[in-house]
Amino acid sequence: MKPTPSTTNLPEWLSNPTTSPSRPSKVNFWQRNQRHLRGLLNHLAQPTPIVTDQRWHITPQIKLIRLLALVILIALINNVVLLWGLALLLGSQLLWLPPQQLRQFMSHWLVSIGIAAIFVLPSYWLAGPATLGFFIFKTSLMLANAQYYRFTTSVQDLLTGLKALHCPDIFIMTLAIALTYLRMLGQHLLLTMEALELRTVAPTKHPYRLIGALFGNLYLKSYTYALELYAAMEARGFNGHYSRGIASSNHWRDYLALSPALVAWMLFIFWGR
Amino acid sequence: MHIPDNYLSPATCGTLIAAMAPIWTVAGIKVKAQIKRHHETLPMLGIAASLAFLIMMFNLPIPGGTTAHAVGGTLLAVLIGPWAACLALTVTLLLQALLFGDGGILAFGANALNMAVIMPFVGYACYRLGQKLHHEKLGLAIGAYVGINTAALVAGIELGLQPLLAHTASGAPLYCPYGLNVAVPAMLTAHLLIAGWVEVAFTLLVFQFVKKVAPTNLYQVPARTNQRPWIALLLGLAALSPLGLLASNTAWGEWDATELKQRLVQQHVSTSAPRGMVHGFHFQALFSNYDIAGLPISMGYILSALTAVLIFLLLIRGLQHETNTINH
Lengths: 273, 328
Prior knowledge:
The complex is a heterodimer.
Chain A (H helix, E strand, L loop, with lengths): L11 H4 L13 H17 L14 H17 L3 H15 L4 H22 L3 H4 L1 H24 L2 H10 L4 H31 L7 H29 L16 H21 L1
Chain B lengths: L9 H28 L3 H17 L1 E4 L3 E4 L3 H8 L1 H18 L8 H25 L3 H25 L1 H4 L14 H34 L14 H13 L16 H10 L8 H5 L17 H23 L9
Antiparallel strand pairs in B: 1-2
Helix pairs in contact in B: 1-4, 1-5, 2-4, 3-4, 3-5, 3-8, 4-5, 5-6, 6-8, 9-12
């Protein structure tokens, strides 16, 4: 038996391949936010390894004091030679960083200088090149010091340093909880955004409404976390009082590490003005 | 709005840190009282700080193809209370400055004043006023808009004052090179036109969602506490008001035309007072210079202070809603 040729044609909507509306070439704001959030979560999950010198360990509070002393000094100094000296001091400290860390430091530092310079560049027409150059030199030096602190100090060290400098307990506790829960809330936000994207088949008419639900849910989630965390704190014996840590004593190395900054201060007071 | 380092002079940074110290102390005391009522406030501070961090990271689309982010100061004040929001935002700013390089280390006091004090408190005050007038959402929207713009205005003033406060002998600015005429319009234009509306939309949408889903999770204003210390403080300040009489000279900028002319002549600036001042509008108040005929000037000061306090108390009382029902 011969097969009969089919006389009925398929409807046009079935026979013609339809191309689904192409995704907008421009990255939408959901994707952009997801990318930023992933970057933050990666940074929090695998923070830049902290460079610590085992032979020359400096206490966290001294690191914090040194940073503040140097940043204030750079802000005060208007003498180019002294600023140059401080740049050399920082450069010599950077020599101790491993090559990969140094490359990371440089890339982060250059980006931060670029951002800071964007706002100040128009002042070229107001104040001239000398003021602009001096401003950028000072700003880049301050940013380099702050960046160096970030590369050589862990979060735990920062908390220990603040504690040793008699920062109020409630403040340190809040900071510690914020650091822990930043990752958890970020993860929750990212998962919700991914779920929203998977369930949304058409472009949303009012993306702002989704933002209300997104962050409203995040707040309610954080409230639940807070209740659970307090219950856990009580279960571990927290009674509203904070235990005092053992006061760490400063070693002669700490004072030696602080000495270049102190010498720079002396030079500023007696000569730099 | 995060001011980086080197844009403000160390003197400005120091002054603003000193100005923030009592605010942080009061915030700590107020939050401890809040923790006694709601224990979860303690961990909530840290979690709210991370929430604020995420809000500031989240970019919203705006017309023109670009994006802007909300700060969430007013929203946090409404959700967890203004004092707790102040502490949470302070921690967020510290985290951003020390660990992520967003905002200066020296400018931390200035950033905290703008974003952790002015924004939540101005926003919360507008929200409470709206709540009292039965227009809660309108109050919140106005609060979010006015809060962020007030903060931007103050940031603009802080930046714009730098060329006046710190400059070389030749007049070249040492820190922020833009004067008030550039910094204030630049800060305000961006916030009045874009960031303010983003803040309003974000705050209203999240507030509406939380209010619909879990209205009990919003910050509840505590019952009124004993007001005697405040009344005693006001009366004490009224009693001390004549202290200014100890100073013999007129306060700066409050000179009359004759006194101004004398000063201008002394400083070889001009031989006459400005024409606008001499021929301008001169209002004769009922008790000019707090002077009441037949009474010593100090009594005039005290009576004026008491009258002003009484008028304001009556005004506040008139705006309050009845809380007690009358039983017949």
